[in-house]
């Protein structure tokens, strides 16, 4: 075993877990929302920066001005604030029309046209900023929701790896050669089963066991899709990791690719479940 690499990865994992737990559960000690807001904005900032880097590597011939990345970061904060603080649909409507214009107009009219960069910046906002805003929305409904989603994604990944190691034979996707159909299906079924057990001991929320099982299915299937999407982007970009913010573990997108894909579906379902 390469002990220096092991301890580097272990140290990064401990710091990562501590930051995540403070963000998700810090309100139990501090009584404020600053923990979850800070966590979401941190992931958002790192994710947008890494997505911009991926886009630059995918579209090598296109012009990506440095100022556009910073403008995208500012627009990401506006998206985050608008989703979480707006009491009506007026702000959301303004964002849907205003933000694309704010990004695309200067990108197109700059001395070197940066249309591809502007379009990728808008995609980056949808990919990173919107899910992070929805994570805070889920947390405001009940703090256990984003925590449960993260744990379910982790369980799905772990169980898929274990099942695939024992009985996996059929490749799932050429994008990720190590994944198998047997592991993917087994991980999803075990995650849904784990959610049923979670629901049996859930006395803190008002959600039905079926809700938790659907939540687990979203974590498994949307999470797997998110992992494949980020793997595809990295393959197109010709890079191994989206970043190096976590030594031994890669970047923010490497850690949160499944969560980014699962959050919108989880939020939509929870809204549906609460309205029913």
Mind describing the biggest β-sheet? 2 strands, antiparallel
Determine Rg (CA atoms, Å): 19 Å
Q: How many domains in all? A: 2
Uncertain ranges: none
> What's the overall average pLDDT, rounded?
90
In terms of DSSP E residues, the strand content is under 5%
Give the helix level as a range of percent. Answer: over 70%
Q: Within the largest sheet, what's the order of strands?
A: 1-2
Class per helix and strand makeup: mainly alpha
Q: How far apart, in Å, are the first and last alpha carbons?
A: 53 Å
Number of strands: 2
Shape designation: globular
Question: Any chance you could write out the topology, listing elements then pairs?
Answer:
Blueprint: H1 3-25, H2 27-30, H3 34-58, H4 66-85, H5 90-109, H6 115-141, H7 144-167, E1 171-173, E2 176-180, H8 181-200, H9 209-237, H10 252-275
Antiparallel strand pairs: 1-2
Structural write-up:
The chain is mainly alpha-helical and 276 residues long. It has two domains: 33-141; 143-276, no CATH class. It is built from ten helices and two strands. The protein has helices at 3-25, 27-30, 34-58, 66-85, 90-109, 115-141, 144-167, 181-200, 209-237, 252-275; strands spanning 171-173, 176-180. Strands 1-2 form a two-stranded antiparallel sheet. The protein starts with a helix and ends with a helix.
Fill in the keyword field for this structure.
2 strands; single chain; 2 domains; 78% helix; mainly alpha; globular; two-stranded antiparallel ribbon
In short:
78% of the residues lie in helices and 3% in strands.
């Amino acid at each position: 075993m390469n002990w220096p690499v092991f301890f580097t990865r272990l140290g990064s994992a401990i710091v990562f877990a501590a930051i995540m737990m403070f963000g998700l559960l810090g309100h139990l000690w501090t009584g404020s929302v600053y923990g979850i807001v800070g966590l979401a904005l941190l992931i958002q900032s790192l994710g947008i920066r890494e997505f911009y880097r991926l886009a630059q590597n995918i579209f090598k011939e296109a012009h990506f001005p440095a100022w556009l990345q910073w403008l995208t970061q500012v627009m990401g904060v506006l998206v985050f604030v608008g989703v979480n603080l707006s009491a009506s649909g007026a702000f959301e409507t303004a964002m849907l029309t205003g933000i694309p214009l704010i990004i695309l107009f200067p990108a197109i009219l700059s001395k070197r046209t940066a249309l591809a960069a502007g379009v990728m910046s808008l995609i980056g906002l949808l990919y990173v900023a919107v899910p992070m805003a929805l994570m805070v929305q889920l947390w405001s409904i009940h703090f256990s929701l984003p925590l449960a989603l993260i744990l379910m994604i982790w369980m799905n990944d772990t169980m898929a790896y274990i099942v695939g190691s024992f009985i996996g034979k059929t490749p799932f996707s050429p994008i990720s050669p190590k994944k198998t159909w047997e592991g993917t299906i087994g991980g999803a079924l075990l995650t849904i089963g784990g959610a049923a057990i979670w629901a049996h001991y859930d006395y803190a929320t008002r959600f039905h066991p079926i809700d938790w099982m659907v939540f687990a299915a979203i974590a498994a299937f949307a999470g797997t899709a998110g992992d494949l999407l980020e793997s595809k982007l990295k393959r197109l970009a010709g890079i191994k990791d989206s970043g190096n913010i976590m030594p031994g573990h890669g970047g923010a997108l490497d850690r949160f690719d499944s969560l980014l894909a699962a959050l919108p579906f989880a939020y939509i379902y929870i809204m549906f479940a609460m309205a029913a």
